[in-house]
Model the fold of this input.
Amino acid sequence: MDSRYAADVDLARRCAAGDPLAWERFVAEYRPVLYRAADALDPRGGARDIADSLYAELYGVKDGVKDARSAERESLLRYFQGRSSLATWLRAVLAQRYVDRLRAQRRLEPLPDEEQSDRASERSLRAANRDEPADPNRARYLTLLADALSRALARLPAVDRLRLACYYVQELTLAETGRLLKEHEATSSRHLARSRRVIRLDVERQLRDAGLQDDQIAACFASVVEDPGPLDLKPLLRESLQ
Amino acid sequence: MKHADNERDTSIERMLARALRAQTSARATGDCLDAETIAAWVDDALPARERAAAQAHVADCERCQALVAAAIKTMPAPVARSPWRLSFMGWLVPLTVAAAAIAIWINVNTRRSAESRAQATAPKVAAASPQQDVALPSATAQPSISPGSPGSPESPAPAAPQAQAPATARNKTTAHDFSDALAKREPAPPVTTPPAAPTESRAAAESAPAPAASPAPPLAETVGVAGGIAGGQRDAASKPPQGTASKAVDKMAPRAMMQGFASQEPVMIVSPDSAHRWRLLDSRGSVQHSSDGGASWETQLMGANVSAGSSPSSSICWLVGRGGVVLLSTDGRAWTRIQFPEQIDLTSIRATDDRSATVTARDGRTFSTSDRGVSWTPQ
Done:
């Protein structure tokens, strides 16, 4: 336990033990924290039900128990060990449940944006084929580029990959990325730029090693820029196989 | 080349999201982080080794990436810097710029108006008519003020103990630290302007009337108040007497306050024989005399409440100040109070001898006397 959070641990333990005064204080101080966090996760209110559910668990109401007062309570707060502040722990638990629910939903149905991106890629490919003769090497270039990029990413230090993922995949802001990695947002920005440069140089070197000339390497990169939709190799690969 | 690099960086950027997703799906290994660990990470409470391990895992785990990203998004915005610091630093630069601009404007404006009024007022002084005498109270009762005395009756400020020091003390005026500092740098050679009216201070040089506007009998140079004796009504009313008490400053506009702050130099009154000179030091109104061109100074008066003076000869000096204070010394040591008909602040004086002088009041009016203050004639 971090001694900074001793008071939080004490409150959590008293709440878990059923101290009504402690619970009153918890409600006054931490209920707003919980609901503000839910609104931050989904400004449309989609995480409010998770917050409600979590709130009930923090009180100790078990699922299926109708009379909460008569039932034996088992508060979630007993798992709080004081490695962080109670507020941050609550946010983390809420975030965990929110993410898990999203992932469960994704497993059941394809994400609409992925469908749209597939269609967009196919549309752009059809349009390109209709307007001008397709570059017969384009599919090969894109494959080479994607492989080289994958290897370049794998060679990056974990913290650089994490920074890139936070920014490009999780779409955190520079400030949020910096807060996670305990660095200033300007530092995050600098590191991102450096990582992109390192990746580009690595990719160029790999393409050169694969026997591509400078103009072909330029064509590789240009093929990505020309594509108006999100990059998706599947249609191109399908086409190249035919 | 640079353009090509940028294009390639753009290409890399466009591919990164998908490539990173593919990476995280393929490489995720080990146990995912629990909420306790994520919270400790966010609160910067994880030990370094544990944090490095957590980063390594999250870099390759899509779920944990989403989890830490969600946790970070729920965190309130970090506390901004201290509001005091923000407000102070935020306003410091514009305030400094504004203050500098105002100071420059005042400086330029002061010079212009002083020059224009010097030309406008000087002829009036020359054309003063004795028929315009006003009924003045008798000035026969003129208290004499000896060197080192506490000052005039209308200057109730008590003399500092140091003022009782012997008049012969060199560089021991000690009325203020300020005067000490001035005494130390005083030995600089005197700067003289026209031969008939040597001046010392920059303010005097800037405010001296144009030669064409000088009256026929050469008046002793008036040194001191910005705008000088030739100052017009508006200027005389708005400008603080330099080197006078802070009491005088408190009634003035901010502009005048700024002038006061900007001009900490003593008012210097230089006789035609430049070896004899007087200087008026700041708010306590101490008057010091030098008979060796400023190499050494002796305090003659304290709390005299004077702000300007004129010395037509080496032994004669007139001083004027607040509340109609007019002082005269005819031997260069003892001072006599000259009656003045109004309790108005006098900002400058020009004297031709021990009987004739012209003073300018703060409201811009000028008064002349040719009988050592027995009667004053408004101009």
Q: What stands out?
A: Residues 36 and 69 of chain A are 27 Å apart (CA to CA). Chain A has two domains: 3-108, 112-241. The radius of gyration of chain A is 25 Å.
